[in-house]
Amino acid sequence: MKNFEISVLDLAPVKQNKTINDTFKDSLELAKTVEKLNYKRFWLAEHHNMASIASSATSVLIGYIANGTEKIRVGSGGIMLPNHSSLVIAEQFGTLESLFPGRIDLGVGRAPGTDGITAKALGRNPMNINQHFPHQIQELQRYFSVENARSAVRAIPGEGCDIPIYILGSSTDSAWLAAKMGLPYAFAGHFAPDMMATAFEIYRSNYEPSEKFPKPYIIACVNGIAAETDEEAKKLSNTLYQAFINIIRDDRKPFSPPVDDIEAVWNPMEKAHVLKMLRYSFIGGPTTIKRKLQEFQEYFNVDEFMITAHIYDQAEKLKSYEIFRNAVDELNLVSENQNIV
């Protein structure tokens, strides 16, 4: 088992009886906390038309988080590229990188991050997304290059900026693309676990080294809810389960506090579907979290875990990320000692 990094995926969750302003303040507090805990990066995800998620203006929110922190990398997990002009994204992230040098990541995906009607309102053309998405990534690379100074269309800010591009995926399609382009790959195991193992195998087996990334680099995004005991963590996880029940029911209301009995909330079919979607969720006390992380890493051998935590209470959420940090440090120390022997 090799050592691995740990990072955060934040959706800027909106909670019942809280304002959007409260959401943003909580996200910044989380970023500051995990920065002190030496998390590697803090990513925000683009979603639209969801009363439970406030990260629709992803680039703006990245600037807010980066401005309130000092060293942690901040980026998108991701920008849904077909929703945008490649030039506009290059300019936005070029601006961010110019403001916060050496700290900005650009993760890109091809999904809409919303429902079909809203995707149409965003101006997406579903007929050419699969063909156009790789082309857009190449456009970004060109706009960021120094050589593009000779072009008639330039990204300023953006030109000459060293902004790493990560390809996001929830199926095998993006694994093939990331491998072919020689780019890091982040998989959305927190809601689409079925194809993760296959996607990682495709990516590793077909990886074509690039100048910036001579070796494949894998990020696994998973749900993480930790507390002092397994029982406490299980109770906190009811907020996560309710959020996915709401997705199934197409009910986009803000996140709910944990209930005493989740069995009274979902029916058997909903329960089976939710648990299937949340297969890669690490829920428990410190010992359980450490064991589950170790089992996952021994099987998948990823370079980085990205933890997203649907926990209603802010203090409990901050504590959860501290427990995960401690578990990762202990596992990495064991791995280092084994390598020395």
From TrEMBL:
Residues 19-298 form the Luciferase-like domain. GO terms for molecular function: oxidoreductase activity, acting on paired donors, with incorporation or reduction of molecular oxygen. It comes from the Bacteria. Transmembrane segments: none annotated. One of its GO terms (cellular component) is cytosol. SUPFAM superfamilies: Bacterial luciferase-like (SSF51679). To bacterial alkanal monooxygenase alpha and beta chains. NCBIfam families: oxido_grp_1. This is Luciferase-like monooxygenase. It comes from Kaistella jeonii.
